[in-house]
Design a protein that fits this description.
alpha/beta; single chain; 4-stranded parallel β-sheet; 5 helices; about 240 residues; UDP N-Acetylglucosamine Acyltransferase, domain 1
Length: about 240
């Protein structure tokens, strides 16, 4: 191994080690802040850098969250009545989404009570980036809202909505089939990634045949982070190439 490659590899592992140790220290400090100040608990349930910790904080706030749920950074979930938000197993919520369960519009100007409605995301549902989900809305199983949608009414099972206000555009099945066809035409831009939050089975499994048909896509390890850790990835890729 030449000296430059060895130096880059050392930089990569040093970056990884520093990040792991620093992350543990930061997590302890942030946990303390969340314990001391409820406002910090709310803030960190949106912005804590560790995904599992964000889920933990949301549950502490009262949001009902199932198993294998993905909630991205910057997701704002009901503060006034968090118990009225129910997120079932294998739901995915993307960056910047807003999920609301109470409405105080009228009480701002007239003597009327605040209204609270249960907002529920059922098994396998998805909320796209910067979506707004209004009080009382229910996503059916595998229903999905595209980025930027403002969801004002229930979404039936398997349906995909978009727009403001959101309207039904197609079925999730249609998205999957179109994705698969595009993958077959351009496999070089796809990366195989084992998503830990994906449902173990869906109604569309029998339609997805690209693996059985032998279409080769790239491995997710080929993606690069833009950090010194890329040197470690490069070394591993080189080693794998030599072994093959």
């Amino acid at each position: 191994m030449d000296s430059k490659r060895l130096y880059n590899l050392a930089r990569g592992y040093a970056f990884l080690g520093r990040s792991l140790i620093g992350g543990k220290i930061v997590n302890v400090l942030l946990d303390l802040l969340a314990f001391m100040d409820y406002r910090m608990l709310i803030f960190l349930s949106m912005w804590h850098p560790d995904h599992d910790t964000r889920i933990k904080y949301l549950r502490k706030r009262g949001v009902q969250i199932g198993e294998h749920v993905f909630i991205d950074l910057g997701v704002w979930i009901e503060i006034t009545a968090p118990h009225a938000v129910i997120i079932e197993d294998h739901v995915g919520i993307s960056y910047g989404a807003v999920i609301v369960a109470h409405d105080a519009t009228a009480s701002r100007v007239v003597d009327l009570p605040v209204r609270v409605k249960e907002t529920r995301l059922r098994y396998g549902a998805g909320v796209g980036m910067n979506c707004i989900v209004l009080p009382g809305v229910e996503f059916g199983e595998f229903a999905h809202a595209m980025p930027g949608a403002v969801v004002t009414k229930d979404i039936p099972r398997d349906m995909v909505v978009a727009g403001n206000p959101a309207e039904i555009k197609c079925r999730m099945e249609d998205i999957g089939l179109a994705w698969q066809e595009h993958l077959k035409q351009h496999p070089e831009i796809y990366f195989d990634h084992a998503n830990p939050w994906r449902p173990p089975s869906t109604p569309y499994d029998h339609l997805l045949k690209w693996r059985a048909e032998g279409y080769k896509v790239r491995d997710v390890s080929e993606l690069r982070t833009g950090t010194p850790f890329d040197y470690v990835l490069d070394a591993k890729a080189e080693k794998k190439q030599k072994e093959e």
